[in-house]
Amino acid sequence: MFPSPNKNGVFSKDFSEEFCIGSDIACVLVYTLQVAENEWVSSLSYRIGDEGSSDGLARNRGVFSEKQEALQIRLDKFIEIAIRVIESKQYPDRKKKPWISIKKKLDTDKFTQLDLFKK
After folding, report:
1. Could you read off the pLDDT of 31-78 as tens digits, one per residue?
2. Of the four listed, 1, 41, 106, 112, which is most buried by Cβ atoms within 10 Å?
3. If 0-12 CB within 10 Å is exposed, 13-18 middle and 19+ buried, where does residue 78 land?
4. Residue whose C-alpha is closest to residue 28's, from 10, 42, 14
5. 2 found inside a domain
6. Structural domains counted in the chain
7. Starting at the edge strand that comes first in sequence, how are the strands of the sheet with 39-48 ordered?
8. Each residue of 25-46: b (16+ CB within 10 Å) or e?
9. Is the model's pLDDT at 7 over the cut of 80?
10. What is the C-alpha to C-alpha distance for residues 75 and 77, in angstroms, rounded to an integer?
């Protein structure tokens, strides 16, 4: 049996899988949840310095046929945001390097990136 969303179409994160990575300047959480046969949803919560955002697990943010695809979409979005925010804040280069190296890893090997985000 698959979970049902609330009246606003948002699924509870209680039964989702959580992938997390963090450092002194940033933290990201990606939640994935199977909502039907071959249907996965995901959400992104992040903090970069004093900025952050969080969204709910909902079909209107995209439905994916595989968990890896649902996760990858959110990770790609986070990396895009992180690089933009870090560059706009003009953090010292030493603080940019961890996120740039993670981006390179994700770009070169889409599926082994799961190892980076396991708790």
Report:
1. 999 999 999 999 999 887 778 899 999 999 999 999 999 998 998 888
2. 41
3. buried
4. 42
5. no
6. 1
7. 17-22, 26-36, 39-48, 51-54
8. bbebbbbbbbbeeeebbbbbbb
9. yes
10. 5
Predicted TM-score (pTM) of this structure: 0.73
Q: Which residue, 63, 57, 100, is CA-closest to 79?
A: 100
Question: 22: burial class by Cβ within 10 Å (0-12, 13-18, 19+)?
Answer: exposed
How many angstroms separate the CA atoms of 100 and 95, rounded? Answer: 10
Domain span at 80: 10-117
Q: Which two tokens stand for residue 59?
A: 């079909």
Contacts of 57 (CB under 8 A, 6+ apart): 10, 11, 12, 13, 16, 31, 33, 41, 42, 43
Amino acid at 117: F
